[in-house]
Amino acid sequence: xxxxxxxxxxxxxxxxxxxxxxxxxxxxxxxxxxxxxxxxxxxxxxxxxxxxxxxxxxxxxxxxxxxxxxxxxxxxxxxxxxxxxxxxxxxxxxxxxxxxxxxxxxxxxxxxxxxxxxxxxxxxxxxxxxxxxxxxxxxxxxxxxxxxxxxxxxxxxxxxxxxxxxxxxxxxxxxxxxxxxxxxxxxxxxxxxxxxxxxxxxxxxxxxxxxxxxxxxxxxxxxxxxxxxxxxxxxxxxxxxxxxxxxxxxxxxxxxxxxxxxxxxxxxxxxxxxxxxxxxxxxxxxxxxxxxxxxxxxxxxxxxxxxxxxxxxxxxxxxxxxxxxxxxxxxxxxxxxxxxxxxxxxxxxxxxxxxxxxxxxxxxxxxxxxxxxxxxxxxxxxxxxxxxxxxxxxxxxxxxxxxxxxxxxxxxxxxxxxxxxxxxxxxxxxxxxxxxxxxxxxxxxxxxxxxxxxxxxxxxxxxxxxxxxxxxxxxxxxxxxxxxxxxxxxxxxxxxxxxxxxxxxxxxxxxxxxxxxxxxxxxxxxxxxxxxxxxxxxxxxxxxxxxxxxxxxxxxxxxxxxxxxxxxxxxxxxxxxxxxxxxxxxxxxxxxxxxxxxxxxxxxxxxxxxxxxxxxxxxxxxxxxxxxxxxxxxxxxxxxxxxxxxxxxxxxxxxxxxxxxxxxxxxxxxxxxxxxxxxxxxxxxxxxxxxxxxxxxxxxxxxxxxxxxxxxxxxxxxxxxxxxxxxxxxxxxxxxxxxxxxxxxxx
Length: 747
Known about the structure:
The structure is a single chain. The longest helix is centred in the first third of the chain and has 22 residues. By secondary structure, the chain is of the alpha+beta class. The relative contact order is 0.05. The protein starts with a helix and ends in an 8-residue tail after the last helix. It folds into 3 domains: about 190 residues, no CATH class; about 230 residues, no CATH class; about 230 residues, no CATH class. Helix 9 runs antiparallel to helix 10. The C terminus is likely disordered. The radius of gyration is 39 Å and the shape is rod-shaped.
């Protein structure tokens, strides 16, 4: 009897469960609301009257869905409405509100949500929906129904709700995420799927499309976005993405592996197709690819196109320090690995246009020990310094057909430039230097120096490092005019004003090629030869002009195997007779026996300890000063002839005035004396008037006169070069040895 009773009871239970599952347990509405409210620690309702947010916006009448719930194989809920209250700490009117709801939940997902993890919804279908999502700086989120007692770490994944299938007729989503500094409001629309063509495999059916149009703010920048994706949203952990790293090469101190294209480890049909068009601040982004979730940036892979009025405008929203430049556009491939905020982004730049420059590269952006770091390599076929104008204190120029940034950042707007000044006075963005670290190899085929007079650098190699606000350009190597430039440049932006120093060497630079000297009738260049030397300088300031105004150090250079225009030498010495002879028979070149310049800089003022150009015909000496602080010059050039001339005025040339308006004149004293004597003698005899204008020339006097011109008792150019080389510790007399002498070496 007992066994019969037990069997009858079991049969009764089976019948009840079967009936309940078939009918949808309609009498469980109120008990289920109470139980869910207790477990979620907030009110949950299935009544249509509770859906105030949607009912207020559109009176669509009573919902056609009747309440039902089934428990076999997971919770399957059908209800005319679903309303979930916001957590007690929230100011929102509710967390979730929907009509005509079909909700499927797996028990494993419910258990994870009960433990405080992000909730996963196997299926959510609704005719209309309104969700108000919030996350505070302490990690509490409205989608966490039982917050963990221990706050999540800063680099924990952002556990937004994930969905297996999401179909929404229409809806709105509001997201306020304090850790991301993100506040947006989006509108959702759903386009049903299209069946496969007759006879085609079912896999060719076009899935339903979820569209989201959003507006708001990201990191205080205005945001407008439109996203389209499929309605099937796989879980993040189910997606496998790998990257093929491309190591930066060309240096023993190469940075960490740079960005690479993303490829799936294996074909994964659970990845979502994703299309995004967004404007953040002044930057515009489009993306075509796939993601693990439509509501997360985790495991993202695809192609992008990015543009903006400046590189800085592109870097601002993502916290990457980029220079203020002309208009910018770029395209390539992008990968976001993992779901943590600190997980790396990898970018391959196939083509980047900055003004007229053409660049490419591969980069990794990640957070290491709490510090944002950019590493990789920067290459390209052409870089114009004018396109980096604002970054080096100049004025932005537009890209081809583009426009200049109409609203640069306040700290990088041009300072008012006094009248008559030409040096760039735009303030550096020193704060941006302290915002992140960088480790980038630079390899550019052609660097245009923004002037038609100078030959470009071909190529340019360097290692850029930015650590705690100190920007260093080391391993600098550039070739131009058959010569080479090497050295190091550093800008220390830890404090204001910034400290700048440079140590540069150049060798075998063909002067006639480096400085373009186009002359009529195929005349020889004004000056030629191999230029060698070294500059050791330091300064401080908040702009290029301020740094140049405080320069201190030495610049030394020597011309080897050189030649100079005979006409230029005679014209500089006001030798009328020989200059006329050159004009008649044609110009030729005078070999340079010694060409040396040794400049000392202090407080932005350069003074030559010696500046000489010695030929077999004449010796040219220069003294005076050139000030980068006041942008003025006061130079005096004296030519001492070594040969006879029947008609020469012989008066020093003066170069004075500002950089903006230089003035070239002749020293009046010697000229007045010669012309006065000529006039007086001409009164006695016309032929006697030529006597004061005759110059017999004297090689020994030329050497002694040059020594007197520079204010010492030296024995002339050759001796100076020898003593300067000895002071530099190089008896061989190489230009590098000459340039490396101390600032106090004798002249």
